[in-house]
Amino acid sequence: MKEIAIYIHIPFCDHKCIYCDFYSITKTDNVGPFLNALKLEILNSREHLIESEITSIFFGGGTPSLLSSQNISRIINVFYSNFNISKNIEITLETNPGTVKLEKLKEFKNIGINRLSIGVQSFDDRELKFLTRIHDKDLAIETIKNGSKAGFENINLDLIFNLPKQTREIWELNLKTALELPITHISAYSLILERGTILNKLILDKKVKMNEDDFDATLYETTIEYLSKNKFNQYEVSNFCVEGFECAHNLAYWQHKNYLGFGPSAHSFYENKRWWNFSGVKQYINKIEENGNAICSDEILSADQLLDEFVMLALRSNGLGLETLEKKFGSNWYIKNKTYINELKKNKYIIERENFIKFTSKGYLLCDEILLQFK
Ligand code: SF4
Fold this sequence. Notes:
Blueprint: E1 2-10, H1 31-43, H2 46-49, E2 52-61, H3 69-82, E3 84-95, H4 102-110, E4 115-121, H5 125-130, H6 137-149, E5 155-161, H7 168-179, E6 185-190, H8 198-204, H9 213-229, E7 233-236, E8 239-241, H10 248-254, E9 258-262, E10 267-270, E11 273-277, H11 281-291, E12 295-300, H12 303-316, E13 320-321, H13 322-329, H14 332-346, E14 350-353, E15 356-359, H15 361-365, H16 367-373
Parallel strand pairs: 1-2, 1-9, 2-3, 3-4, 4-5, 5-6
Antiparallel strand pairs: 6-8, 7-8, 10-11, 11-12, 13-15, 14-15
């Protein structure tokens, strides 16, 4: 049976953060019709789900923890009642400090959520204020501790580095604070300026100044060094975890496995086809009611595109298995790139061991540049 990962986009947020370009809205008057549409969309994906085993469900957003545990449970039950679920399924719920109390976290645990991903972003109150987050450091710490008290043994924190005026010391203190808490996983992303965000406008209007380009690399290097010293292994460009706590859902993306996304703006990938939904909640609901799906557009990937993506995703995460590559695509890629691979090995950017190529820490630092050089 084929493995499949499920992503559910819950588009509701308490407010809009200045840097965010994810699709989210602050009005919650459409929750009921949205949930009905979501259920219909899932049931209408029977052809992709019926012969698959669901290995992960990821509730992202938006802020999924704004929904009641009963509503999240109803969505999970649509899968349990109709499709095959792996007995080791990982079910992640994204949550934000300030939107959940201990009791609600316990309810989420009781309905089968077994992984929390908490949008902390920073433990520095000045930075949190700048990001227009609704929480402060104390609330972030309380939410993480409550997650642990509620019984979650697998907790991820999202953190952002390279914020304006951030020093290396502030960023190190963020990492240190995170590691003193009961967590197993850190996703650390550099602040990205996205078009259309309030932050982008502030930068264009010269009201906020970003750090110099190379400071980003300094902070990234600090992240890799600091976390690896503290037994958080890097298993993707931006992801670090205690051994055994790699995110199964993200690994499915990075291993180019099939996944289905439900909800506004969600993306899906199945064999050689990718498609994505309309973004607006109302449009999403209308399309589902009219057509049974809310597909905005799709694309078929050629064999070369599939190969490029497979290599790129594998190398950005925990390595490229040469036997798997050969079984799926033949041996041409390795032969074509052998001279370059040897050069990378000599310069200690990658290691090759037991038919496996993997970036070193030094390689992760330059991974985008390196990936561009492969033929
Ligand atoms: S809480 Fe998250 S999804 Fe919502 S606006 Fe802020 S960054 Fe975006």
